[in-house]
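Thread: Newbie trying to understand structure tokens

Hi all, I'm a second-year student working on a class project, and my supervisor (Dr. K.) asked me to get a predicted structure for one chain before our next meeting. I've only ever worked with sequences, so writing a 3D structure as a token string is new to me. If someone could post the tokens and maybe explain what I'm looking at, I'd be very grateful. Here's the chain:
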Amino acid sequence: MLADREHLLAEMHSVLGGGGSGGPRIVALYGLGGVGKTSVAVEYAHRHQAAAAVAWQFPAEDAVTLTAEFARLAAVLGVAGFVLDSRDPVSVVHAWLAACESPWLLIFDNAADEQAIRRFVPPAGNGQVLVTSQSAMWPPGQAMEVPLLDPEAAAAFLTARAGDADRGAAAKVADELGGLPLALEQAGAYIAASGSSLAEYLDLFRCRRAELLGRGDPAGYDKTVATTWSMAIGRLGEESPAAIGLLRLLACCGPEPAPARLLLESCQAAEYEPEVARYLGPLLGDGLAAADAVAALRRYSLVSSAGDRMVLVHRLVQAVTIDQMQAEVAEAWRRAAADLIEAAIPADILSPENAPVLRSLLPHAQAALPDHSHGLAQITNWLGRSGSYRAARDLYQKIAAARQRKLGAEHAGTLNSRHDLAHWTGLAGDAVTARDQLAGLLRIRERVLGPEHPDTLTTRHSLGYWTGRAGDLAGARDQLAGLVQVRQRVLGPEHPDTLNSRHDLALSTGAAGDAEAARDQLAALAPVRERVLGADHPDTLATRDSLAVWTGWAGDAASARDQLAALVPVFERVLGADHPDTLAARADLAYFTGDAGDEAAARDELAALAPAFERMLDGDHPETLRIRNSLASWTGLAGNAAAARDQIAALLPVRERVLGAHHPETLATRANLAIWTGWSGDAAAARDQLAALVPVLERVLGAEHPETLAARANLASWTGLAGDLAAARDQLAAELPIRDRVLGADHPRATKTRREHAYWTHLADHREARSPDPP
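---
Reply by user tm_fold:
Sure, no problem. This is what the structure looks like when written as tokens:
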């Protein structure tokens, strides 16, 4: 099979066809059995044999066969010296090749390694030497790996070979077979012979894999996948039993690169069943033995190096390895793999230093650990903290269900998993479901553990938080205010859980309408968190970010901007540039950059951030929608009111669908739509939209919430711009004492209301209209 091999053939020619007087040029093609090494070598020979005085292919499995083949070549060449020294045909052929002025090409097919053919490779002459081997151990500059087929080429081959145009099924079969040419040819041959389809083969393969890997009549191959690797594994078992142990361990892991040495270092004292201990025992805690085992596997290309002490095993090698064991033995190896993976998971999942280890273990934990295990829960929480909220939610759905089956509905482990499921459900974008899950869990925890048990208080905290995110801002504030007092008494004023409740109380206080109180609470909390947790702890950074935001919302946009400008690089260093919290901090910086006067910079930064939010969280996530709302606002404030109106008009139905029609953020989008409708030239429509919105805001948020106050002020402005100057004056006159009382007479928004009242009073007296400053 030569699909997707042109680049490799060109690379081979660039090395082999270089010429020069330094002796033969050598390329060793290596790779997994069945990857098509011989096919590539033969194709190269066909393309270049016209320029060669001699082109010869040697079977290179053993020295006796090689020597006999050299004797045959000597006879074909009619070498005179062969008659004089028929006992050493190798040196006779070497001498002839060295003296030959024309180029020549030799192929040593299926060599065990470099040492096995060293004395047979011509030392001199104007020639090219191609070697095929499963071994990856070749001198520098000689080795070229024959890769697996990429998914598109593999699927295209299958549709052609099987005579079935179903590209979807072809892609799935190609994925199951891992792009291995022999397996693809074998599948295509079976389908063609049996008259079945790719979809039927896929279903059959998933339930009878071992049988199908041993069937078929692959053209151009004398062995099937099963026999090819069974022979290699059998030889390996004779040479290195420890390598067989490592292969069996890796077969029980996921198909991604695996940290083999880390797994073997992680657990030395566990007791394994005799069949496992015999192979695995010598490797545990012995780095040299582990390295030797990896080297032995690489000699057969059963594993390949994936960098950074990682090795990669093809998924079909895993399958054949498992299928060769009896069921009870395979199960013993699966338990051993699970033990080693769980032991390798660091206890501190918050430490940035442990992130590379956790990342490398994640796919293997998913493949090998039981759903109810502590290790899978730990690594899932790390996954969520890394920003993959939906993946964490999906895994926790499995964990919670498995623990309920295994441990019972009211076991502490089950309740913990239900709490974590609600947490990741909320962060994945579904605040209402998170709130409802936590409300149900709280009743159970209060009954089972008591109302002041730390776990009960943790659930109370989360319920308060997600109550707010679901839209009940005042309810969240009140729940968290009561909880802070209980946590201070039960846990102490500086316990991390108490500090968490203080932080979220501040946020809900601000969201419920008191920005100054939120700012002051966060200003008091920030130094405590830094002292208790450390300056770079994610919770400390969250408090610093929130302090900056509420400083801005309390009226000091320039200070908020400066705080966030200093904070964003810390987020990037601690959490990474693509973490959702880092992106949120950048979005906050953009907002207050605009609020401090640079509207165009805010628009441009938010436009750059929107695709990152969509990539990390998806297009319907509440955080992504929040960015779209801000981008529209700053697009308008930067001078393009019509674009702002259109962006908001497209966003509103999405927010209504995702959050609900009466969610505070949906109502904020309605307010923005009215404003930019007005600034696009339709003052009457803006007035009418705001007139319909204000009663809803008063009912949902309260008559004195800042968003309600802003909507009433904007209603007055657009009432005036629509032509009713006296009504605008009177509405603002009624609004002034409320703003002075709620915000304070010196607050910028209260001052702005007084200016607008004076403006509309003047217009009402003089009956002349011109536009006020943008709201």
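A couple of things are worth pointing out once you decode it. Residues 77 and 93 are 9 Å apart (CA to CA). The longest strand covers residues 104-111. Feel free to ask follow-ups in this thread.
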